[in-house]
Task: inverse folding
DNA sequence: AGATAAGCGAGACGGTACGTCACGTCTTCAC
DNA sequence: GTGAAGACGTGACGTACCGTCTCGCTTATCT
């Protein structure tokens, strides 16, 4: 949730007339463009996402967008990176609890429409643009590293087997979430989700 | 692998001038269109896949394409469905062996360039087109059912726990493969693949 | 002056919705584009003449314009060629009378705003575009040939000297008209015009 | 021809880094801008003449140009006015000789590439910009006054008729030169040029 | 001597037009 | 009625300039 100040700042960026502030990037324009891009993505999906549409909505000139983002893909990635996901990997004491929490949190985050639509677009774009694909892959590897801590803890506790690779284990979990996102089936009944968590916990058992 | 007759038929479809064969669908045209679509997809990816390009390559009129495929998405799905994957779910005696074989076969199938490029495109398209998304989801559910047999066998053998849902277990495995396809990381070292198979096998253990 | 039928045809071209009439040029679109181009030229001059503006006014697509006119210049020339000037080179019996009539007719034709504005634009364009310059020069040479008849008649009558080149003589007269057009001084007092005609007549005297 | 000092000054204006010299116009900047403008005009014609290009070439800021020249047109006129034409109206004793010399000198001056390209641009610009048109017309009237002296001399000698208006006579000659410039036909064979001069001389005969 | 005021380069800004590409629809004509 | 062909209106692409703006600086002129 955004604070009041942030919202008014963003609104100002969109609603007041902007102009150059000298030979330097105008942060209000950047804000307006990113905000407009996100809104379009959320409202109409990747299909209605075009530089023209973003420029129109942000009341910005197309060259201003192209000046700072070399391609549609890069703008997309920037929009995605603004979607700050508070990555909680809470220590519940058991690996199954941790996994359930992570899965539940991620799916819930995507279900709040904004984030899900944006991320789906990024993945789709990566299937067209090799650079986006590399960026996405690199980003994911980084995310696995973050998420893998819970498996490391489990190994330290002796709950997970020695031969388990924490990052790969994390990847399997993320893969499941991706798959549900991409087939538009984020609304998972709790028992299914629990069973998945249990299975993943089982999979690393010593 | 295609037979010689099929190839010459396809070649004929592409190279000779075609015209109406009366008030009925001309199968040569359909063949030429699908073949051209597949080639474009494989050579240039989804980015260079356009109705216009397909029509050009197939020496077909655009209306001919629109007459038989209501949208780009549907043409894409048709191309995908032609990619007959010989779904082997061989009974190796152990669930881990079965899983490894399925994973290895799928990734190998996609690595043979043609199939992978096409399927990636289908998934990307599904992120834009809700109808494609539904079709894809339905197709996947069907595939899980096929693939789940090995888990059923494992349950029958007592190798897998009672609480395991064979289809969901299959989904987890497919998810992993999808994820690697979508991040262009199909070249998995054998030890990683073995570890993944072992983990998946572990996950269903009683 | 256009006939009523022509006007209603042109109006129809502009006002009714047009579409393709098969794999052939749609004359209504062509008409609408040329008409719109002329109107823009007359109303706002070369400065406001842009392909976008023409397309907008003609309710045509830009590609339709580019399909048939490779450049702004060519569209301009086409507009000019539609401005059919009834080239009267009346035989008044004296060369001075002929010259006066030709000069008066030409300036009057240009003063009727439409033709003058279009021709000024063509000349200006020719200063930028070498191809337009060539086309214009060729067109002018042709016009001199037409206009030179009166000098030939004068030579036959013994009114003009043998050493006179009829076409070059015609060029001098056209040059004067051009000059007045280009400096926006078409409103020439009759005595000045008479003096010019007298001078030109003098210039060819035996 | 420029003196050595002027050239080095101009070079300095272009090559050394310039900055403000206090609350006053920096003549080096003005020089650099005008020089750059002329060069661009000569090298690429009016088509490649843009404020942006001039600023780039002169290493000047756009606002510096706009501060001193309200429009592209005015900059163009300034460039033209720097093209000092040594207006020779030599007294050869006969009006035909005078006319030939003036015509030959003017065409030769324009043929030396620099002047011709610039003047063509001014005329073209005047077809778009009414202010430029007025300025050009005023300038031309002034030039006729200068050039008309030879006709006045001819009248004084009794070589030209009383009813001749020297300035208008001069205009006819300039018109011919303009016409050749604008249709890119400055390379006139000497016999044609002689005939033209003879005709113009004839035209004012008593 | 220090403040002030304007000129300077730089370059970002919101725009308009460029010329190209693909969209999905339409009509014609040969079979 | 099916097929190739290709024109149509639409709209996005990425680029070039437009004319305006604010910046940080430099330097002459005025307290």
Result:
């Amino acid at each position: 949730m955004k604070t009041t100040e942030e919202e008014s700042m963003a609104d100002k960026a969109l609603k007041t007339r902007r102009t150059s502030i000298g030979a330097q990037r105008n942060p209000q324009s950047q804000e307006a463009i990113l905000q407009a891009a996100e809104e379009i993505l959320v409202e109409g999906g990747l299909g209605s996402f075009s530089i023209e549409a973003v420029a129109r909505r942000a009341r910005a000139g197309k060259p201003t967008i192209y000046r700072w983002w070399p391609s549609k893909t890069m703008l997309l990635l920037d929009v995605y990176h603004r979607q700050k996901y508070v990555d909680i990997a809470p220590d519940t004491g058991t690996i199954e609890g941790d996994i359930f929490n992570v899965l539940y949190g991620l799916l819930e985050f995507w279900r709040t429409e904004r984030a899900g639509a944006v991320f789906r677009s990024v993945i789709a774009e990566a299937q067209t643009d090799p650079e986006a694909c590399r960026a996405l892959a690199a980003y994911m590897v980084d995310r696995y590293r973050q998420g893998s801590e819970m498996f490391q803890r489990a190994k330290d506790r002796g709950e997970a087997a020695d031969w388990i690779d924490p990052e790969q284990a994390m990847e399997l979990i993320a893969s499941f979430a991706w798959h549900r996102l991409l087939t538009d089936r984020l609304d998972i009944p709790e028992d299914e989700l629990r069973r998945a968590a249990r299975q993943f916990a089982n999979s690393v058992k010593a």
Summary: Residues 17-26, 29, 55, 59-64, 67 of chain D lie near DNA strand E (CB under 10 Å from a C1'). Chains D and A do not touch (no CB pair under 8 Å). The mean pLDDT of chain D is 90.
